[in-house]
Every structure is written in C-alpha cells, then in structure tokens.
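Dear support,

I submitted the protein below through the web form. The confirmation email said the job was done, but the results page showed an empty box. After a refresh the structure appeared. I'm attaching both so you can tell me whether what I see now is the final result or a partial one.
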Amino acid sequence: MKKRWDIAYKEPLERYDPEMIIDILLRNRGVFNKDAFLSPMHPLDFSSSDFGIDNSQLLEGVKRIKVAIQKKESIVVYADYDADGVTAGAIMWEAIHNLGGKVMPYIPHRVEEGYGLSHIGIDAIKRLYDVDLIVTVDHGITAKEKVEYAASLGIDVLITDHHAKPEDLPDTTIIHTTKTSGAGVAWFVAKHLLSDTLDDTSFRFVMNDFLTLASLGIVADLLPLIDINRSFVVHGLPLIAKSSRPGIQAMLVESGIHTADIGPYHISYIIAPRLNALGRLDHAMDALRLLCTKDKRRSHELAKRLGTINKERQDMTLETTNDAVDKVRSMNEDKKVLILADEKYNPGIIGLAAGKLVETFYRPSIVIAKGETVSKASARSIPGFNIIEGLREARSLFLELGGHPMAAGFSIETSKISAFQEFFEEYVQRFLSDELCIPSLAIDMELPMRYVTKELYQAIQQLAPFGVGNPSPIFCSRNVHVRDMKQVGADGKHLKFKISHDKSDRPLNAIWFEMGKQIRAPGIQESIRSIAYSIEETEWENSTSLEVKVKDMI
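What the results page shows now:
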C-alpha cells in the first residue's frame, strides 16, 4: 500500500551529534521538558491537577467509600471486561478490601449484559449482594439513565472513568480524566483511600504493587506513553517480573516470558490478549481472580485457562477477519468507511476484526455482530477522523454508545442497521478527506546512513519504553546503496539485505518483515533510492550488532 512520508524535522543535520538528535526526537513528541521525560517522577508525587482530576469530586468520592466501609455497607466494584477494566477492578477491590470494606467485584458478561452498567447487572448485584454503593471502574461516564435506575433502587453510584464525556453527565460523583486509563484512575483513587491509613513503608509497598497492575492496564488500553502514563510505565513495568502476585508469575510462565526486561511489547501482544480473551469469549471474572489470588496452585490453573481461551480466540479472530477482508475485496466500490454485519460474527472479537480491516484497507471500519433483535458493533478509525464524534451524530439510532476518537462500540436494533449504514456512509463521505485516506508513515527526521551508530542507538534508548505516543524513532536515508538482497524465513516471507550510504561504507544488516513475496521484480535492488527504518540491536553468539528494521522504501 502506497504511503505518504510525513517527516517531522526536515532540516539537514550539519554535524553528527546524538544529543542534538535526541532533542529533535523529543520535540517531535511534543516534549519540551527533557529532564522530566528522561527521569520521570514517581506517580505518587503527582497531584489531582496533574492527573486532570477534579479534586473536589475526588475527595467526595473517597469520603463516600470510607463512609460505606465504616457503616459496613455492601459495596460492589463494577469493572469492565477488558484488560484495563480487570486491572482497574483488581486495584479498587483490593484497596477497599484492605480497609475492611464489605466489598465484592462484579464484571458484566459481554454478550448477556453488554458494556458498562446495565439494568441486568444492577438487578443482579442487588439480588446477590443487596448493594448500597456501586463503584464503577473504566466505565460509567455515559451511564446517566443506569445511574438513575440504581438510585431508584436505593443504590448510590460512584463513577471512576477515563472515556470521553458525553454532553449529558450522570447525576452523581464522578472521578474522571482522559489523561490515563481506567487502571490509572483506580490507582489514584486507591492512593487517596490508603494514604492516611498505612505507615509510609506499607503504603509505598502496596502502591508499588498496584503500580504493576496500573502500568499493565495503561499499556493494554493503548494510552499514549507520555506525561503521567510514562511515569506509570517507567516505574511500573520493571516491577512486573518481580511481582509477588502468584497470578502474574503464573501468567509469565504460561506465556513463555522469561526476560526480566518486560516492556510494552510483552504487555500488548502476550499478556493483555490473555486477559482480554476471557471477556471476549466467556466471562472475565477468572482474569480478575488470576490477578488477585494468593494461591499458587490456583494461579497456574487460571493462567492455563487463560492461555487455552486465548488460543481459541486467536482461531476465531483469524476466521472472522479473513471473512471480513474477503467481503470487502468483493465489493465493487471503494468506500470511505467499511461497515460489515453478519449473524456468524462473535461479539467478543468484532473489535479485533475491525482493527484488521483498518490495517488492511486503511479506512474507518465497523463490524457488527447481528442478533435477532439487537446487534453489537465495534468501530475502529484512522488518524485524523474522530469516530466517536461521528457516531454521536447518529445517537438516536443506538441503544448504547461509548468510546474514544479512535475506537468505539455501540448496540443497535437489528432493524436499524441499514438506516445507520446509509447515514454513516454519507457522513464519512462529507467529513473524511481524500488526503486522510492515504496512509502516512510518521518519520522523525532524515539521517545520513553513516550516522547510524551504536552510540546513537544507546542514546535513543533513553527514550524507552516505546509505545503509543512515544514510538520507536523512525528515520529516513536518501541515496542509499543496497546489496545481497534475499528472501528469508518460512516460505521466504521476509526480505533481508545489506545497506550503506555508498559502496565504500561498512554496510548494516537490514530486515523488512512480511515483504519477501511482495518484492520480486528484476532489478529492484538497484532501483531503491530511499529507505525509512528504525534502529534495532540484535544479539548472536554473545555479541551484539546494529540492524535496521525497514518500514518503507522508495
């Protein structure tokens, strides 16, 4: 797929200076306080204003929880069923439980109850626990009518959430910010719940323990790893491998993670999918039990169950995404938004299928699991198109709606799907420009290939951990010399070659994943003029060497 190169810093470098390059990379990420970024302070040192949380609402919410604990009221922590919601639920439940609260966790069933608060869920916890106070984590900001329903049953609701605010807020105490994830908000509430009840040593131990969960939730929910979130991951991720939680250790063993250096990659592609899988295909309560159990035998049983369900999820996702991709390719027209609905799609994996459509066709995509009377949908977008804003224009057609600018979900009466599709295709046609439909490759700066050195690589590592909002730097080099190009890997799926500024320079190894079969034209090696890449370090037989990971070529 043709890409547009968006080069953030276009000025030529007058000399080789790794620190100057680091300064440019930081400015590209909107970072102007270098010291704060390279040495972020501990999340315990942040205030409510740093988090973007209304302090009066925070104090009111913390007071309501403490009153409930003192009066032995029945409290339910009502969590979401994804990895962020499960980690947030674990933090909030344990914090209240540690204070002696009469508290139970609750996670709705994705298919039977749907996202967030519901009449079914509220009725269930009223019947099971005779609940007095519901504390939501990672949802609730759009649940105005559900909060009113709870109030009619004599149940108070305290909302802690990070999703986009609707115009009409629930009439209750709301602890909210969009600067971090649901787990980050839960962590901050827990900090204020526990700060005046534990001695300093115990308090820091507990909050660092919760920090492992919060950092996991933040990375899993694809929050930008800058500002507060960078503090969470810098201080939290190194603690995961050393965690005293049997469930985390069992999950690391089951998933085959042997390194002590756990980063965003391990969370995003190995751990989070396991925590998410139960909520997609079964019920997420066992994921929460895994995080909270103190029983080593039980932790290994639960970790194995998560692994088994995740494998099933992978198989179902592949089947659904292949079907969706085939359907799009069979269309006779190039639409600016892809909307697919099918009775055989599982509601738990339609978000993954929508993401695959975006990745394949670079169009906002909505995949709908059609039900007999009610259907569930997941939407994913492309940079520059705010999909939740667009969906709100059709809010009268939905039963439920929530999400972010890049991802959203809704439920709709099946009979209204056609009306929605007609409306939304017309809306996207008007508000999504042709330019935004061309995928862009964000490149930090142009760099002569001879400047790619170990010294530069080591300087760049100061910016780690890399992830959303703080990607691994991408450079481009012009007038490069390529040789020894060959296909490698199973079925020759990858492309490997050597690259240098000119024939006389010492070449670097280069790899372009998934492109082995794409580039077979005679003379392609001699025709390459420019290359976009990241700089990696590989290890072989106890020695390390630099390698460039190719992103695109001209």
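Response: this is the final, complete result; the empty box was a page-load delay. The mean pLDDT is 93.
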